[in-house]
Amino acid sequence: RGRTYGSNIYLDITLEMNPDLSVYESHEIADQVESMLEERFGVFDTDVHIEPAPIPEDEILDNVYKKLLMREQLIDQGNQLEELLAEDFI
């Protein structure tokens, strides 16, 4: 959404970010977008809202399958439950 006040341009935008990005990474991207809008288009003020982008269901299922397979392989190799918990695998 955009508006002008006098000769100044004000924008409110929503960016969908990959949910795997950290908060820091998402805000770095938002800062870059704000700078680009100011430099290229003379936007006076930009209010950026960050939302997680939806993940396709097949990608979710693929990630779950890979994680379950990795856990099974680690357990088959005789790793202790405490080691897996410490490494955030379970």
TrEMBL record:
This is Cation-efflux pump. Residues 1-52 form the Cation efflux protein cytoplasmic domain. The lineage of its organism: Bacteria, Bacillati, Bacillota, Bacilli, Lactobacillales. Pfam families: ZT_dimer.
